Amino acid sequence: MRLVQILLVALGLSLAGYYLFSPPAEEREDGRVVIEFVYPGTPSEAAIYRKQLARFEETHPGIKVKEIHPTTDINILQKIQIMLGGDVPPDVCWLDVGTVYQFAKYGGLSPLDDFIRADCYDLSDFQPQKFLLAATYDGKLYGLPNGLNCLLTFFNEDAFRRAGLPTPEELAARGQWTWEKFLEVGLKLSDRKKKVFSHDVGFTHPWMLCPVLESYGERLVDLEKKKCYTDSPTCVRLLQMFKDFIYRYNIRPMPDQMEAIRGDTFMSGQVAMTFLGRWLVPKYAAGAKFKWGVAPLPAGPLGSRTPLVGDFYCIPRKARHPREAWELVKFLCGPEGQRISAAGGLLIPSRRSVALSDVYLKCPLMAEKYNRVFVDELYNHGVLLPIDEHWNQWASDLYDPGLASAFADRESIEDAVKRLKPRVEEVLREGD
Amino acid sequence: MKATDRLPPTPPAGAPIRPRPPLLSARRLETLHGYALISPWLIGIVVFLLGPIVASLYLSFCRWNLLQDPVWVGLKNYTTILSGEDKIVKSLAVTIYYTVLAVPLNVVLSILVAVLLNQRLRGMGVFRTVFYLPAVTSGVAVAVLWAWIFSKDYGLLNWALGWVGVPAYGWLSDERLVVPAFVFMALWGIGGNMVIYLAGLQNIPRELYEAAELDGAGATRRFFHVTLPLLTPVIFFNMIMAVIGSFQIFTQAFIMTKGGPNDASMFYMLYLFNNAFRYFKMGYASAMAWILFLIILVLTLIQFAIARKWVYYEYKEPQ
pTM for this one? Predict the structure, then answer.
């Protein structure tokens, strides 16, 4: 009896060991190659992906796509990281503009150049072309753009009409939508006692601050020289202006008020303007009970600028089915995949031919003129962010929170930038 | 040499035939049986616990981004940490501040609640369950719930304080209040410790209380001279666990504040997580984990050393 028990335990352990440590077998289902695809899985995004994947499987009968979709962007990055680190990589993964360079530089991704060369794949339809640089490391391309995004001024048209003010759209058309004008209309739209403000955005995160600085002909960091210019007179003046919006002019809620109301201030009517991207269009189209529209960001001396952001599809270096993975990437970023994505309204198509087609421009979530503003701003005023492998560390976890005490009025802007500059430069130099 | 020479000698005719010795002796079989039965656990601890512990020790001497092979850097990670990197110092200070506030309050409050729930009253089971419930609720769900309670403009806490004229505070957005807010939130989850104290209280023999009563001791004296001394081993255990737990605080800050505002809630474990999964510095994060282990080890040894002076183990059951 004991011997039987010993043998059973040994058998169980052998099976467990086999399943744990044996390399994954070639996966096939109904004779089709099964590839794994990781993408962010909010319900609205997942619905678009499923349409794309259904069509892909129709047009590629030899390939079946297994979906993996963690629910948030943070989860998906950890998921991909662990899958790559654990040697069980997916075949295709989604990565945003802030992380694709990091994954490429650290050797997690496969360059697409050989596939592109072998298929004579034409990249010229991807516009703006410079966005491809965000997924380029050491001269090689590591991802194809799925979609684009940028920052625009979302404005409550009813609030502007009630105050008898021209809208940002009208001011932009006249070339008058500047930061000075922004302050002027902001003063007329705000009433702190009634908790009504002109806007709710701090512009302290580099992804917002960098384009504004570029509209003044300056930049926040130089990645090659590993320098941070946050103490430049222009940067200090702009940060002081954003701080003055809160304490001197009372046109923006205090930081602690932002905590409770972030995200929905615009839809609830507490602010007349917000600065966000395309991803909010479906939400506002469904929920806003007032007329609203979009306009460029307020202009600096060089005109308006907007951050060029978006996401990519990449093939991990150790993907088990790279050829099939490439077929999926080509489809998702191809004209047909992009048309399906454009109809969902969450992103601006990365292909110019689709972005300027009726599928996107006549997307019913908003008027054609507003759909066009996104494309015009991206093509004409989009700026590439200074993203390196340390972006999360210096931009999100150091610079932005580092300005919090200045924006809580416990420190001057000058003192904050003096403190931050060497720390940012130290992070930029890491790994040299 | 013929092949038959190697065969065992044939027993002489008429000799008793001895049974063949079993393949495994009974003793050896029993040993093997024991090992077989504990082997899933044994293999589990080696593969999933000891393995990663040893691996993390090795990785703490490496630069490793998870995607490429680790590169040996010797003591560099440790020297960077010990040289007082800004955020390490800050995160350690925040964690110690939280521990200093949370552990004593946790001990005192959970003893008080346990004493109250040790009364023989009708429906006490319901109260015990209610106090214990938060201890078995998912940490993420608790964090989301408290984020709403602490919300400045719409939170239940400010609404309740408003009734007695206290102005609204940004509990999670004010650098001075965010750690006390986490402490307050931790006190809601004292149910786990409370149950252990309750068990400790019920283990105190009644005859000691009766003797104290006969000597004229009132309720307060009985508590301080009978209950508390006999509860000290349980207090000691709970304090050690509470110190370890508070040095490992992570979920609440990860969900509710992400370490903000201005790193005021950047606990050590959260910074460790950021290094590992946001900055791809697995080696540095491993070194941080080992430093944390040493800190906790030293604190625990200190607690054991001090325990000799205040923990009372003298009582023995009468024969």
Answer: 0.83
Mean local confidence (pLDDT), A403-412: 88
Structure tokens at A361: 């421009």
Judged by DSSP in three states, B88 sits in helix
What is the SS3 assignment for A99? coil
SS3 A312: strand
* pLDDT-based confidence at residue A69 (cuts at 50, 70, 90): confident
Q: Which residue of A has its CA nearest to B178?
A: A256
Length of chain A equals: 432
Query: What residue ranges define each of the domains in chain A, with the CATH number in brackets?
Result: 26-148+309-375 (3.40.190.10), 152-308+384-429 (3.40.190.10)
The residues on A that touch B, with CB distances below 8 Å, are 2-3, 5-6, 9-10, 12-13, 77-78, 81, 84-85, 102-103, 106-108, 255-261, 317, 389-390, 392-393, 396-397, 401-402, 404-405, 408, 410, 423
Here the contacts of A233-238 (C-beta below 8 Å, separation 24 or greater) are A235/A209, A235/A417, A236/A413, A236/A414, A236/A417, A238/A203, A238/A209, A238/A212, A238/A213
A84 to B67: CB separation less than 8 angstroms, yes or no: yes
Could you tell me which of B33, B36, B10, B88 has the C-alpha nearest to residue B269?
B88
Amino acid (one-letter) located at B81: I
Q: How far is B159 from chain A (nearest CA, A)?
A: 13
d(C-alpha B103, C-alpha B97), whole Å = 10
Q: Which residues of B touch A102 (CB under 8 A)?
A: 280
Model ipTM value: 0.80
Is the confidence at residue A205, as pLDDT, over 90? yes
Q: What is B79-310's CATH topology?
A: MetI-like fold (1.10.3720)
Token code pair at residue B115? 């004493």
